[in-house]
Amino acid sequence: MTGIDLTTWARGPMDELSVEGRIDQVARAQAVAVVAHEGQIDKLGVAYIGHPAAVAARFDPKEQTLEHCAAWLHDVIEDTSVDANLLARAGIHDDVIEVVKLLTRGPDDGDDYYRRIAAHPAARAVKLSDIRHNTDPDRTHLLDAESRERLAAKYRHALHLLGN
C-alpha cells in the first residue's frame, strides 16, 4: 500500500475510493470499533463487539463499504467515549462519520431519530441490519419474556417509522 495518500481518503465520494482505500476504511472502522467497545458486555452476557460485527457482516465490504464501515461503528458515538472528531482523526471517511452520526440516538430524539435515518439510504440499511440482529430469535430467546416483548414492540415501531 505504498504511494497511497491517506489524507485524501476522508474526502471526496466514498464510492470513488480505490480498492486499497476501501480496504483501509474497513480495517480502520473495525479497529476503532474493537478498541472502543473493549470490555463491554451485551444484555446476553457476551462481548458487545459481536453485535457490530454481526451487523457489519450483512454488508459486502468491497461493494457496500459505506454501510459495512458504518455498521462496525454504529454504536461507537452513542455507547463509548469516541466522538465524531476522534473518528475523523482516526482516518474514518467523512461519509461514514455522517452515517454514524445519523445512527447516534440523542436523549431527546424520539421518533425523529427514525425519520432522520429513513431519509438516508445507507443509514437506513445499517439500522435495518441492526434491528435484524437485535431481533434474531437465536439471541432473543435468551432474554426473559418481558424483555422480549418490550424489545419486540420497540422494534415493530422502529420498522414502521423506517418504512418497513
Automatic annotation (TrEMBL):
Give the highest taxon in the source lineage.
Answer: Bacteria
* Protein's name according to its UniProt entry: Phosphohydrolase
Organism, by scientific name, is Cellulomonas chitinilytica
Source species taxonomy:
Bacteria, Bacillati, Actinomycetota, Actinomycetes, Micrococcales
